[in-house]
Write a structure and sequence with these properties.
0% strand
Length: 269
């Protein structure tokens, strides 16, 4: 055992590697919760843990090169771990921004086309869900991985470990965090509105047509007769709008990764 400890560089080197690895895991962990491109929401905990462990083992040697001397106090190390969780959460949310916008747009589509019941009842998970939102997110994840976005995002995460080493004390101020959050939220809402706009136009036209039918023939049960028409029109418009906008998604995803890298860099300023 003593020979192994000596080969690894001694007790101090092992302790430093374990502390740095723990901080790297704290930065990586939010990706498995907040970034659908790395682990979807329905992924089991064991899979998320395995992803965190694999990324930690891969990134710890890089982090060791730039990490400063770490305190031995457990309380200070815990504070540094919370800071790393914040950095990882900012990076994860920013990189997953297009996927979250897709999910919001799908939820709007389901609401407008009258699929509210499907949003409430989800027997497998017992949580609220949106069929079109789930379809949009899965399509976004496939496209993100297909264009190599996961490699670019992980490369940006690795570069962040060199520029903003784990264990440093810089933390963004509340004003910077609020400004960054507002910026990300505005981008996501605008992107979701663009995706949902074709459905909104189609549903309005359907409602106008149903209103004219109801005025011409009051005895026709327009509300119940129009339910399948709303559902079909909304779904068709959603797929058509997505087909027209899908070519712009890679650029939006690359922009999200650049935004995430920029936000992480602000921690070093």
């Amino acid at each position: 055992m003593q020979a192994l400890v000596t080969w690894l560089g001694g007790q101090d080197a092992i302790t430093r590697a374990l502390l740095v690895g723990m901080l790297v895991a704290a930065r990586v962990a939010p990706l498995t919760i907040l970034a659908p491109w790395l682990a979807v929401r329905q992924a089991p905990v064991m899979l998320r843990t395995a992803v965190v462990l694999a990324l930690t083992l891969a990134l710890t040697p890089l982090a060791l090169e730039s990490a400063p001397e770490l305190p031995q106090s457990a309380l200070l190390v815990a504070a540094l771990a919370l800071r790393e969780v914040l950095v990882g959460a900012v990076f994860a949310i920013a990189t997953a921004l297009p996927m979250h916008a897709l999910e919001w747009a799908g939820s709007l589509v389901d609401t407008w086309r009258g699929a509210n019941l499907a949003q409430i009842l989800a027997p497998p998970t017992g949580t609220r869900t949106s069929p079109v939102g789930t379809l949009y997110v899965m399509m976004g994840v496939v496209l993100f991985i297909g264009v190599g976005g996961h490699r670019v995002a992980l490369e940006a995460l690795a570069d962040g470990l060199a520029v903003v080493p784990v264990g440093t004390g810089q933390v963004l101020g509340p004003d910077a965090i609020a400004l960054g959050a507002a910026r990300l939220l505005g981008q996501a809402l605008s992107f979701a509105a663009v995706l949902a706009a074709p459905v909104a136009v189609a549903i309005v036209l359907v409602e106008v047509a149903l209103g004219l039918v109801a005025r011409a023939s009051p005895q026709v049960p327009v509300f119940f007769a129009g339910m399948p028409l709303r559902a079909a029109t909304g779904l068709g418009a959603a797929l058509l709008g997505l087909a027209l906008l899908v070519e712009r998604l890679p650029a939006a995803m690359r922009g999200a990764i650049d935004t995430a890298a920029d936000l992480v860099l602000r921690f070093a300023r």
